Amino acid sequence: MANPALQSFVLARLADFCDVRVRKGLGAEHPIPYLLDKLREIEPPLYDLKQQLFNDAINEFFLRVEDGKVDQRALDDFVFLMERYLPPVDFVDAVFDLSLERLREPRARSRMADALRKLTVHRLLDEEALAANRRRPSWEQLARTFYSRLDFERIENIAKRRPMTRRRLNYILRRVQSNVGEFCAVLHHPRCPDDLFTPFMTPRIEALLAACRRLLNSLR
Protein backbone atom coordinates (compact mmCIF):
# COMPACT_ATOMS: atom_id res chain seq x y z
CA MET A 1 0.00 0.00 0.00
CA ALA A 2 1.22 3.49 -0.84
CA ASN A 3 2.98 5.25 2.03
CA PRO A 4 1.25 8.55 2.94
CA ALA A 5 4.52 9.79 4.46
CA LEU A 6 5.93 10.13 0.93
CA GLN A 7 3.25 12.65 0.04
CA SER A 8 3.92 14.55 3.26
CA PHE A 9 7.62 14.66 2.38
CA VAL A 10 6.84 16.06 -1.08
CA LEU A 11 4.65 18.76 0.45
CA ALA A 12 7.29 19.59 3.07
CA ARG A 13 9.93 20.13 0.40
CA LEU A 14 7.50 22.26 -1.63
CA ALA A 15 6.91 24.32 1.53
CA ASP A 16 10.67 24.78 1.89
CA PHE A 17 10.85 25.89 -1.73
CA CYS A 18 8.19 28.52 -1.12
CA ASP A 19 9.55 29.75 2.23
CA VAL A 20 11.37 33.05 1.71
CA ARG A 21 12.78 32.93 5.25
CA VAL A 22 14.47 29.56 4.65
CA ARG A 23 15.96 30.77 1.36
CA LYS A 24 17.33 33.91 2.98
CA GLY A 25 18.86 31.78 5.72
CA LEU A 26 20.27 28.54 4.32
CA GLY A 27 20.26 29.69 0.71
CA ALA A 28 21.28 33.31 1.12
CA GLU A 29 24.62 33.09 -0.68
CA HIS A 30 23.48 30.93 -3.60
CA PRO A 31 19.67 31.22 -3.80
CA ILE A 32 19.15 29.71 -7.25
CA PRO A 33 21.23 26.54 -6.61
CA TYR A 34 19.47 26.27 -3.25
CA LEU A 35 16.02 26.33 -4.87
CA LEU A 36 17.10 23.91 -7.60
CA ASP A 37 18.31 21.54 -4.88
CA LYS A 38 14.89 21.73 -3.22
CA LEU A 39 13.27 20.75 -6.51
CA ARG A 40 15.61 17.76 -6.87
CA GLU A 41 14.82 16.63 -3.32
CA ILE A 42 11.15 16.31 -4.30
CA GLU A 43 11.72 13.85 -7.13
CA PRO A 44 12.68 10.61 -5.26
CA PRO A 45 9.69 10.55 -2.87
CA LEU A 46 7.34 11.73 -5.61
CA TYR A 47 8.35 8.87 -7.92
CA ASP A 48 8.33 6.33 -5.10
CA LEU A 49 4.78 7.41 -4.32
CA LYS A 50 3.77 7.37 -7.98
CA GLN A 51 5.05 3.80 -8.36
CA GLN A 52 3.27 2.68 -5.20
CA LEU A 53 0.00 4.25 -6.33
CA PHE A 54 0.31 2.44 -9.65
CA ASN A 55 0.98 -0.87 -7.90
CA ASP A 56 -2.02 -0.32 -5.62
CA ALA A 57 -4.24 0.32 -8.64
CA ILE A 58 -3.10 -2.94 -10.24
CA ASN A 59 -3.71 -4.96 -7.07
CA GLU A 60 -7.14 -3.42 -6.52
CA PHE A 61 -8.18 -4.02 -10.13
CA PHE A 62 -7.23 -7.70 -10.15
CA LEU A 63 -8.94 -8.28 -6.81
CA ARG A 64 -12.10 -6.88 -8.38
CA VAL A 65 -11.61 -9.14 -11.40
CA GLU A 66 -11.38 -12.21 -9.16
CA ASP A 67 -14.55 -11.12 -7.37
CA GLY A 68 -16.35 -10.79 -10.70
CA LYS A 69 -16.85 -7.05 -10.30
CA VAL A 70 -15.19 -5.86 -13.52
CA ASP A 71 -17.28 -5.06 -16.60
CA GLN A 72 -16.21 -3.31 -19.81
CA ARG A 73 -16.60 0.14 -18.27
CA ALA A 74 -14.35 -0.81 -15.32
CA LEU A 75 -11.81 -2.23 -17.76
CA ASP A 76 -11.86 0.96 -19.83
CA ASP A 77 -11.31 3.00 -16.65
CA PHE A 78 -8.33 0.82 -15.76
CA VAL A 79 -6.83 1.22 -19.23
CA PHE A 80 -7.23 5.00 -18.93
CA LEU A 81 -5.53 4.88 -15.53
CA MET A 82 -2.54 2.95 -16.88
CA GLU A 83 -2.16 5.44 -19.71
CA ARG A 84 -1.74 8.14 -17.05
CA TYR A 85 1.04 6.24 -15.33
CA LEU A 86 3.04 4.42 -18.02
CA PRO A 87 5.45 5.44 -20.78
CA PRO A 88 3.79 5.13 -24.22
CA VAL A 89 5.68 1.98 -25.29
CA ASP A 90 4.96 0.16 -22.03
CA PHE A 91 1.33 1.23 -22.18
CA VAL A 92 0.84 -0.26 -25.63
CA ASP A 93 2.38 -3.55 -24.51
CA ALA A 94 0.36 -3.57 -21.31
CA VAL A 95 -3.05 -3.26 -22.97
CA PHE A 96 -2.32 -5.45 -26.02
CA ASP A 97 -3.96 -8.60 -24.56
CA LEU A 98 -6.11 -6.94 -21.93
CA SER A 99 -9.74 -7.94 -22.49
CA LEU A 100 -12.63 -9.27 -20.44
CA GLU A 101 -12.30 -12.66 -22.13
CA ARG A 102 -8.63 -13.02 -21.20
CA LEU A 103 -9.25 -11.74 -17.68
CA ARG A 104 -11.73 -14.56 -17.12
CA GLU A 105 -8.97 -17.12 -17.76
CA PRO A 106 -7.10 -17.70 -14.45
CA ARG A 107 -3.72 -18.44 -16.01
CA ALA A 108 -3.89 -15.55 -18.48
CA ARG A 109 -5.09 -13.23 -15.71
CA SER A 110 -2.18 -14.24 -13.48
CA ARG A 111 0.35 -13.65 -16.27
CA MET A 112 -1.09 -10.21 -17.05
CA ALA A 113 -1.05 -9.21 -13.39
CA ASP A 114 2.57 -10.33 -12.97
CA ALA A 115 3.63 -8.47 -16.12
CA LEU A 116 1.93 -5.24 -15.02
CA ARG A 117 3.53 -5.36 -11.59
CA LYS A 118 6.97 -5.36 -13.20
CA LEU A 119 6.37 -2.09 -15.06
CA THR A 120 7.88 1.21 -13.96
CA VAL A 121 5.86 4.41 -14.01
CA HIS A 122 6.81 7.16 -16.41
CA ARG A 123 9.15 9.73 -14.90
CA LEU A 124 7.88 12.72 -16.82
CA LEU A 125 10.70 14.93 -15.54
CA ASP A 126 13.11 12.75 -17.52
CA GLU A 127 11.66 14.52 -20.56
CA GLU A 128 13.43 17.66 -19.34
CA ALA A 129 16.81 16.04 -20.02
CA LEU A 130 15.90 15.79 -23.71
CA ALA A 131 16.25 18.48 -26.33
CA ALA A 132 13.02 20.44 -26.71
CA ASN A 133 12.30 18.91 -30.13
CA ARG A 134 12.56 15.39 -28.70
CA ARG A 135 10.14 15.84 -25.81
CA ARG A 136 6.68 14.37 -26.00
CA PRO A 137 4.27 17.05 -27.30
CA SER A 138 1.77 16.28 -24.52
CA TRP A 139 4.45 16.82 -21.87
CA GLU A 140 5.77 19.98 -23.47
CA GLN A 141 2.27 21.39 -23.63
CA LEU A 142 1.63 20.61 -19.96
CA ALA A 143 4.96 22.12 -18.84
CA ARG A 144 4.36 25.25 -20.90
CA THR A 145 0.83 25.54 -19.53
CA PHE A 146 2.22 25.60 -16.00
CA TYR A 147 4.94 28.04 -16.99
CA SER A 148 2.21 30.40 -18.17
CA ARG A 149 -0.18 29.62 -15.32
CA LEU A 150 2.50 30.51 -12.76
CA ASP A 151 3.08 33.81 -14.59
CA PHE A 152 6.69 32.80 -15.26
CA GLU A 153 6.70 34.30 -18.74
CA ARG A 154 6.12 37.77 -17.30
CA ILE A 155 8.66 37.19 -14.51
CA GLU A 156 11.26 36.10 -17.07
CA ASN A 157 10.60 39.22 -19.15
CA ILE A 158 10.96 41.43 -16.07
CA ALA A 159 14.28 39.76 -15.25
CA LYS A 160 15.61 40.55 -18.73
CA ARG A 161 14.80 44.26 -18.65
CA ARG A 162 17.80 45.38 -16.61
CA PRO A 163 21.08 43.92 -15.34
CA MET A 164 20.54 41.53 -12.47
CA THR A 165 21.53 42.67 -9.00
CA ARG A 166 21.17 40.80 -5.72
CA ARG A 167 18.25 43.03 -4.77
CA ARG A 168 16.43 42.46 -8.08
CA LEU A 169 17.09 38.72 -7.89
CA ASN A 170 15.62 38.53 -4.38
CA TYR A 171 12.54 40.41 -5.55
CA ILE A 172 12.09 38.08 -8.53
CA LEU A 173 12.58 34.95 -6.45
CA ARG A 174 9.98 36.17 -3.96
CA ARG A 175 7.52 36.43 -6.82
CA VAL A 176 8.41 32.94 -7.99
CA GLN A 177 7.96 31.49 -4.51
CA SER A 178 4.70 33.35 -3.97
CA ASN A 179 3.21 32.13 -7.25
CA VAL A 180 4.22 28.52 -6.57
CA GLY A 181 2.82 28.83 -3.05
CA GLU A 182 -0.57 29.87 -4.43
CA PHE A 183 -0.73 26.68 -6.50
CA CYS A 184 0.44 24.52 -3.59
CA ALA A 185 -2.40 25.88 -1.44
CA VAL A 186 -4.69 23.33 -3.12
CA LEU A 187 -2.48 20.46 -1.88
CA HIS A 188 -2.70 18.95 1.57
CA HIS A 189 -1.14 16.31 3.75
CA PRO A 190 -3.04 13.01 3.53
CA ARG A 191 -5.67 12.48 6.21
CA CYS A 192 -5.87 8.73 5.54
CA PRO A 193 -4.16 6.15 3.25
CA ASP A 194 -6.79 6.79 0.54
CA ASP A 195 -6.25 10.55 0.57
CA LEU A 196 -3.28 10.57 -1.80
CA PHE A 197 -2.35 12.24 -5.08
CA THR A 198 -4.54 11.16 -7.97
CA PRO A 199 -3.31 10.20 -11.46
CA PHE A 200 -4.55 13.65 -12.49
CA MET A 201 -2.47 15.47 -9.86
CA THR A 202 0.91 13.72 -10.08
CA PRO A 203 1.75 14.87 -13.64
CA ARG A 204 0.77 18.40 -12.69
CA ILE A 205 3.21 18.38 -9.80
CA GLU A 206 5.86 17.14 -12.23
CA ALA A 207 4.97 19.98 -14.61
CA LEU A 208 5.17 22.45 -11.71
CA LEU A 209 8.69 21.25 -10.91
CA ALA A 210 9.67 21.45 -14.58
CA ALA A 211 8.35 24.99 -14.95
CA CYS A 212 10.25 26.10 -11.84
CA ARG A 213 13.42 24.46 -13.09
CA ARG A 214 13.13 26.14 -16.48
CA LEU A 215 12.69 29.60 -14.99
CA LEU A 216 15.46 29.23 -12.41
CA ASN A 217 17.88 27.99 -15.06
CA SER A 218 17.00 31.01 -17.22
CA LEU A 219 17.85 33.30 -14.28
CA ARG A 220 21.30 31.80 -13.62
Features:
mainly alpha; 220 residues; elongated
Summarize the structure.
This protein is mostly helical and about 220 residues long. About 70% of the residues lie in helices and about 0% in strands.
**Residue share in β-strands:** under 5%
Distance between the termini: 41 Å
Number of H- or I-type helical stretches: 11
Class from helix and strand fractions: mainly alpha
Rounded radius of gyration (Å) = 20 Å
Helical proportion, percent range: over 70%
Give the tally of β-strands: 0
- What is the overall silhouette? elongated
The major beta sheet can be summarized as: none
Average pLDDT across residues?
A: 92
Structural summary, described in words:
This protein has 220 residues and is mainly α. Helices cover 71% and strands 0% of the residues. α3 (31-66) packs antiparallel against α11 (201-219) and α9 (152-161) packs parallel to α11 (201-219). The longest helix is centred in the first third of the chain and has 36 residues, at 31-66. It is elongated and about 70 Å long.
In terms of topology, how is this protein built?
Elements: H1 4-18, H2 20-25, H3 31-66, H4 72-85, H5 88-95, H6 100-103, H7 106-117, H8 137-149, H9 152-161, H10 166-184, H11 201-219
